[in-house]
UniProtKB/TrEMBL annotation:
GO terms for biological process: reductive pentose-phosphate cycle. Its EC number is 2.7.1.19. This is phosphoribulokinase. The gene is udk. Residues 6-180 form the Phosphoribulokinase/uridine kinase domain.
Length: 315
């Protein structure tokens, strides 16, 4: 069996890593995806972190060495016995087996922190929503699913600020795609705009022909060696379908995946849908299935390291 294709999704807590990944797993099929959440590699539980005054964003608060070993095993197609962190009450639990599959989706706060970690990923995505949006997302999520009060989440966010700047933000320089959802036209979370910086470290789908057709304000702008794709949150259903069809047409070898829906997310416990999220997920999906096709034919996905570590221009 060809080796698994490894997707890394990095961003601060509440930035949307699980939301992006969940849709991809639905489309690829649960049975074909091994999912690794790097939160499981926290060195200390919630109570110990509080007593020690350390935040989960600090590299010392995580077994990054073990995470690295496990990623390399999984990438070679070997199972691992991984630690388990339970977000419902902030405790460490008994370890669990994770078996490799066609794709490995890794969500993490610090998965691009070292060169060895970075090079274990075929596709690297960094999520960078504006702070006010992320804080709102985290408060709602932590209060509904992680047993926190609003005051506790806000205090915790303040405590983490320095580590977020020191350790989370610098990782964006190593991503192939940097995604920023913004509430510029409306606060409705189903209609957020999305900016996707397509860095030249990967060969992205050629989206230029799309822009010859009117896709309702979708724009592709050059940013140095990179391209910025701007997706307005208020596209009509027909415009979205046209745009999605154009990307699907560029991955005809994955047409069997086409029927499933992308773009779903939750607010608290209610299920919603976002077209801009669906389009972002489709672009990531393009990279996963393209890399898979390359590996299946005995090759290795091509990566240009020219821009790795070079801070991208601001959007
Ligand atoms: N693209 C999006 N559009 C609308 N809402 C979003 C989007 N991404 C995330 N959210 C909201 O933010 C919440 C938190 O997102 P999510 O759980 O995916 O973040 P995360 O990065 O996985 O967090 P953590 O690292 O803390 O586990 C979601 O439950 C959802 O309400
Ligand atoms: O930054 C986070 C990523 O999910 C979490 O806050 C961290 O993993 C600790 O979890 P919890 O707040 O549930 O104790």
């Amino acid at each position: 069996m060809p080796r698994p294709i490894v997707l890394g999704v990095v961003g601060d807590s509440g930035a949307g890593k699980t939301t992006l990944t969940r849709g991809l797993i639905r489309v690829l099929g649960d049975e074909h995806v091994a999912r690794l959440n790097a939160d499981d590699y926290h060195r200390y539980d919630r109570r110990m972190r509080r007593e020690m005054g350390i935040t989960p964003l600090h590299p010392e608060c995580n077994h990054l060495d073990i995470l690295t070993q496990h990623l390399l095993h999984l990438r070679r197609g070997e199972p691992v016995l991984k630690p388990v962190y339970d977000h419902r009450d902030g405790t460490l639990r008994a370890p669990a087996y994770l078996r490799p599959a066609r794709f490995l989706c890794v969500e993490g706060l610090l998965s691009f922190h070292t060169e060895t970690l970075r090079s274990a990923h075929d596709v690297r995505v960094f999520l960078a929503p504006p702070e006010d949006l992320r804080r709102g997302w985290k408060v709602t999520r932590d209060c509904t699913r992680r047993q926190y009060t609003t005051d506790e989440v806000l205090r915790e966010l303040d405590r983490r600020e320095a580590d977020a700047i020191a350790y989370i933000a610098p990782q964006r320089a190593y991503a192939d795609l940097i995604v920023t959802f913004t509430a510029s036209r409306t606060d409705d979370p189903s209609h957020l705009d999305a900016d996707v910086l397509l860095r030249d470290s990967l060969e992205h789908p050629d989206l230029t022909p799309l822009l010859e057709v009117d896709h309702g304000g979708v724009a592709l702008v050059r940013r140095g060696r990179d391209l910025l794709l701007r997706i307005p949150g208020d596209l009509t259903a027909a415009q979205v379908t046209g745009l999605e069809e154009s990307v699907w047409d560029r991955m005809s070898f994955a047409s069997h995946l086409r029927a499933r829906r992308l773009g779903e997310f939750t607010v608290g416990t209610s299920l919603r849908r976002s077209n801009s999220l669906a389009i972002v997920q489709l672009i990531v999906l393009y990279h996963l299935v393209t890399a898979r096709a390359t590996v299946a034919l005995g090759g290795d996905p091509v990566r240009s390291e020219w821009s790795a570590g070079v801070a991208p221009e601001p959007t």
